[in-house]
Task: structure prediction
Amino acid sequence: MKKWIVLAASLGLAGCSSSMCDSPWSRSDCQTERLLYQNDLLQAKILVGSGDLESLELAEALLDRAARDDQTGETAFYKAVLLIRLGPQTDEVLKLLEKAVAKGHPHATALMYKIYSEPFLVSEADPERAEEYRADYANLDVAKSGYPSFERALALVNALVTPPPESLTPVDPQ
Result:
């Protein structure tokens, strides 16, 4: 009899622990919210990465909407990159990056390393602080798994914060 009670309780608890959000094609509100969050974040990342200044307003709106559901610091990281592209607003950028680093975002950690090692956005390099961020990166789960490596994360960060080349004007064939 005790075995049946334990089995029934286990099944009941298993049913409570699974969520409609976890099953694909469910039409629950939480699944819809998660899909919209993923869509907003993906579009914002594409717009920020494109370097098109005219698209940054839309990217900012998408990031603001996605921020309320963000658990990883990704929206804060891309908002910081967006602000760098608009013209460095150092205090706000650092605040956003610290928020993303606190949530364990690897690219934010790599960007903080870049900021203090080069220096980038700050007036003087701070090698000790830069090494703290490099050590923080080494303790992240993604770093322990080897993906992305610190060098890879730094390369991505460099690509995101380097201004895109000016668009070439087409040559008139006539």
